[in-house]
UniProtKB/TrEMBL annotation:
Residues 494-503 have a biased composition (Basic and acidic residues). Residues 5-223, 283-498 form the ABC transporter domain. Residues 494-520 are annotated as: Disordered. The lineage of its organism: Bacteria, Pseudomonadati, Planctomycetota, Planctomycetia, Pirellulales. This is Putative ABC transporter ATP-binding protein YheS. CDD domains: ABCF_EF-3.
Amino acid sequence: MAVLLQLREASKRFGDQIVLDNADVSLVDDVKVGFIGRNGSGKSTLLRVLLGEEELEQGEIVRHPSLRIGYLRQHDPFVAGESALDFLMRDSGQPEWRCGEVAGQFELKGTYLEGPVKALSGGWQTRVKLAALLLHEPNLLMLDEPTNFLDLRTQILLEHFLREFRQAALIVSHDRAFLKATCSETLELSRGKLTMFPGKIGPFLEFREERREHDRRVNATVIAKQKQLQRFIEKNRANASTASQAKSKAKQLERLQTSEIQTDEPTVFMRAPKVEPRQGTALRCSELAIGYPDHCVADGITLEIEHGQRAAIVGDNGQGKTTLLRTLVHSLDPLGGEMKWGYGVEIGTYAQHVYTSLDERHTVIEHLEYNSNADTTKQELLAMAGSLLFRDDQINKKVKVLSGGERARLCMAALLLGNANVLVLDEPGNHLDVETVEALAEAISLYKGTVVFTSHDRYLMRRIATNVIEVRDGSVKNYFGDYDSYLESVEKQVDDGERDRRAQSGASKTAPSKSNGMDYRQNIRDQRKAEKEIKNLEKKIARLDEEKRELNKQMLTETKPDAAMTLFEQIKALEGELTKAEERWLELSEA
């Protein structure tokens, strides 16, 4: 297993902030790593260091001679007037047929491939960029928040692409579901230290919390012992007959040290607006039409949302989810029909058109004071500001100097400190890290009001959605099923599309052949042999899974570095064997 990229004893800081503190990490071929850390911890800075765009103050980067990095950039690389196909050919230097073949993996065809690329939505442009990456044949992908603003279908396509990509990847993301589906290992950056965990994000978060709890218990025991020794020393050091014992105890006391618990301060906590629960219909739409003066996005919308529901608005990018939300909060006028909110409804809005229009004369703390409940204490204001990364001197920053992400977080903080009994949220998980998304999900779950929201974060959707409303093909309807069933239906559509694409590709490459009785009997024998091998593989996969689970449990409690390294090597060997078995099972199943 070759090491493609290695960071050794790396140190870097910005002002007083330590980004890397004697940090080490190795990225090896064929391993996909999910990279997590609090907002502001320095993840993007580390990516720029690895790309050679920023220098280290100390340490070194070792690159394998065959390293080819593919980096998904956020900027717009397109030329005005060119099609997606033109861009792919220009960027990669590959022939038209090859560019079209790779584009097909991301469902880029027809006008999406041959029309103006700048006319595509952000999600479709990301598909074009991913196709361009693949055409360069990298052996290490670096993706920085690749799921931001991607709809569910594109996220699933990206997951399938990464699962089939047989090279290494380093993926920065706050989307737990995406990392779980694509990455076998987890890397965390915290207080300048890099920690590599040989497992997915879920087990890592559990391991991290268990280790912290273990350290807390050990520290409590050490502190109790320190107090006991201190009392003995103070009582006996003046007595000649016990002075030597006191001196011995003093030496013991010097040796007793508590361990630092590696946690980011402060712990994220959010609270939703405190409102009284209500009964009945919160919103009623009848034959509603939404859109713009020159373009109707959807019509014939008839639906009701009850008080207390947390209604998830779902659908592909460009179908009209944001248009619907903007109409519901009176930012856009309906084109026709009726829309009526219930009596006593007070709406709080989180959306891009809101957080780009904040009063730039206010400071952060002034904005929160102005928009919060009258009974909100200064301590609650500071706690909410801190939860969303406005700490110390940052609370006195003017709105006009805040970045887009900072304005979004400020808008979220003010909304949660208010008294709205209906929250309308457009992508509330964007700009938030894993821990803050968890805190937001917990706050909304405990909220007694009504929530209408859209999000591409599947973890957030699963945590809070009570019902699903689908925007699709010019209509808006209640989806008769929960979010998991909607997710399954989209995954099936993507799977069917990929199966059809592979079938068409295979048909174009394979000439038809004649079959006779002998061929038929041979096919039956081959099929039975394959079925037997599949059953044996399923047993083997189950056994390997169980062995890996047991080793991971041992890893969580092991404190000796040598023993932990042995367990790590055993887990890696098992993962290699498991991957081969799963690939063979998949190959036989598809055949």
